[in-house]
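User: Here's a protein and a ligand (adenosine-5'-triphosphate). What would the complex look like?
Assistant: Let me lay out the input and then the predicted complex.
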Amino acid sequence: MKSNAEISDNRFLGNISASSIRNLLPRSVSGKHKKNLISKKSRFNGENIAPTDPNIQGDKGPVSPSIAKQSVSKMAISPKEVIRSDSPQELPAAPDPAVKVVVRSRPANGHERGDSMVRKVSDDSVSIADRKFTFDSVLDSNSTQEDVFQLVGVPLVKNALAGYNTSVLAYGQTGSGKTYTMWGPPSAMVEGHSADSHQGIVPRIFQMLLSEIQREQENSEGKQINYQCRCSFLEIFNEQIWDLLDPTQRNLEIKDDAKNGFYVENLTEEYVTSYEDVTQILIKGLSSRKVGATSINSKSSRSHIVFTCVIESWCKGTSSKCFGSSKTSRISLIDLAGLERNKLDDVGREYAKEGKNVKKSLSQFGHLVNILAEGVRSRKSEDIPYRSSSLTHLLRESLGGNAKLTVICTISPDNKSIGETVSTLRFGQLVKSIRNDPVINEITEDDVNDLSDQIRQLKEELIRAKSNECNSIGNNNGYIKGQSVRESLNQLRVSLNRSFILPRIDNESEEEVNVDEGDVRELRLQLDNLHSSCEESSKDTSENKDCIQCSFAEEASETELMNEHDVSCMEEIEIEDNNLEKLKTELLLEDNTASMNCLTSASTSRTIDPASRSSILISTCRQSPVLEDPTLSESPKIGNTQRKSITISSNLASKNILSESSKFNSDVLQQSHKQGDHIRSSLQSSKIFPTPTESLAASLQRGLQIIDHHQRNSASNKASLAFSFEHLTLKPCLAVDKTNNSVQTSPEERPSSDGPSASFLCASCRRTGFSGSSEVPDSMKAWIVAVEDSNGSANQVPKDVGKDLAEATEREKELENICKEQAAKIEQLNFLVEKYKHERGQNSIVEHSNPLLLEDLKNEIIHIDKHKNETLHSRKDENKLPRWDDGENHDPEMIKEKWEIKEVQEDHDGRNVSIDTNEKEALMKEIQSLRSKLQTVY
Ligand SMILES: Nc1ncnc2c1ncn2[C@@H]1O[C@H](COP(=O)(O)OP(=O)(O)OP(=O)(O)O)[C@@H](O)[C@H]1O
């Protein structure tokens, strides 16, 4: 009741009661009056034929003018007859146009003259003077509210229930009857339904709509139908959107997104199930509308208002568990602010501001209509100024969109307002040119199924797209890593194949090539670097069990957790590793060359700092994450000069010392052999990588060939070889006691049981049966010489060693011969002494010694010592001191005699003998002993 009081404060008059609202329920149209309708139609003979209406589509599209005329005639029925019909469904199904324009003239009030210049020429046309305007329908001043409802409201309800969006827009000069036509007086809203009521078209529409919904739900056979209606009421005042159902909500924003479509944010929506609910909303909203006094209308509307009702329906069979169908339609009822000209000064500045905004808003609205009337088909939707104002924005669906639009142009019969009347009629004609595209907003079960199929297909496409994205990118997972590894492995194959086509050196060529020491050093430096990389690679390999996988994984720089793709990739990598092992095995066939390198490296062995070594497999890959096309490498000078054979610098060859070769024990050689394998592996692996590593590997490969070639040439020429792989050894060479040189030269005391030359051979040489076999490989013959041991059996030793052994043996034999000679002479002296003693005892001679005999004895001793000292000096020059032979040919007596003779000699001749002090002392003692014997004899 409070609301009624508020309404009374506005221009709505009258009281609203619950009983009166119940009396507003619509009545059915009888079949009797249906016949009257038909007869009414037959009697229609309009003078003005409506122009071709682009919005008259019928079921399939625009209809012919005759059909349009027929449709207009069908709607030009008496409201009374319509109200009397029993059922709206029994109304003739007229092809309702998408855009419909109805002109209504209000009756003249007491201030206006009755000689209006505006005359209704026909049901759809009016004339002003001699100018005629044709519309869909024209209602003169004698028309009732029911006429308007039948003409506009009934088709609207039918269309709304059918699923169309529908709109009714009242347009006209201020005071021309827009509010009266749309809403009617407030008191009329709660009045009983009657043809003579002033109730406006909107209450009538909702009376009919809700009645039809109720009837359909009650009469549904075998179907389950549910409806849901929600209403909102807003006002556009000074270009702001106000919520008429919640006056605190103002300046609302219009939203339009894919999910919710077009809507006003935070606008109040109320669900209605009865006409009473609607009237309450209407009364509340209309009572909140801004009004003001104009020269024509004391309660002039100063804002645009829009009442919206959304109808949602679901329909399905009672026995069916399926979806059925769903419809959604929107009813938009718009009452524009009154248009007036230059009448703002009467009410002051505030009014002028409101009027200015109204004028501006209507101008923009007119501009939009003009554009739409010109033909929106040739324009892009972005070019249509829907967003020029709140009104045009809200009317986006109604003007040129998915809605059936009816524009009611209200005109005044007053001749003073003839200008506004003409303007309104022109506007009506423009609207008539607008083409809307209303569609039934229904979703059927088939549509749901189709949408479900589309959703499923889109999901599948999304999955495929994601999968393809993973294959092509990257990200960011193990599959990408596996892909990268495969690509890397393919590039590995290409790289290996390319390395095989590198220019090779013809070892069989007789042409000689000079390689200076600089080249050798450079190559050695490269080997050092490669060797360092090798060691680090080994370390990484032991940690990751698969150095190639690890390196490629890091190369990909996409170390994600491994998934099943990675597992499969790992399997592939293992296969590739097996291939690499095969390559290694193939390269091991070239170990003879490496063994020679090990042998020669003994001559120039030196200690390598293990800390300086690093990996090649891993580190190279890390440094070259992007596998580029490998570059063919060039060996130092060889590639440029095309020289084929090698001569090693003599400076390097001078380092070859046989004694140092003893540093190579078997362990070192084995280690060196392993290292050689590692180097080969590195060389193979280095082929994996692009420049510069691949270039380095290629250079090393050719370097090995150069070394092998040189070794062969050097061996054949009996030249020393200083070009070695001593830096490839992992451990320092063992120190050799120089005092054991004789051990090496003494066949009887050779340390190894593997053979005389076993200690000089690397593990590879021994493994290939070189040392233990009497058959010497051809490649080793140049290095072997037969040495005869003390037993007379021939042993095969390396050539340089055998030479020295032979010389030592020869010198040893000479010493033995000397000793034998000395023993023979001493024995001869002893014989002479014994003989002398015997003769003296027999002949009893001797007071004086025989000077001749003594002199002979001294000369003999001196001769022996001289020869002995020469031999000793010779040994000392060779720095090979022999052990003093305490052989059986030198009994103590003879030695004693020898020393005595020597002492006599020194005392006699004063000769300085270069012997050792001990030896001298022994000789002195011997001479003294001999002297004593002589004195005893004499
Ligand atoms: N068809 C009609 N029959 C009887 N009275 C009418 C009719 N049309 C309008 N009137 C009366 O004319 C006066 C002005 O009408 P109304 O307020 O509806 O004009 P309006 O176009 O809405 O004006 P504004 O734009 O200023 O709001 C009202 O008193 C109303 O009762």
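Summary: The chain has a mean pLDDT of 63.
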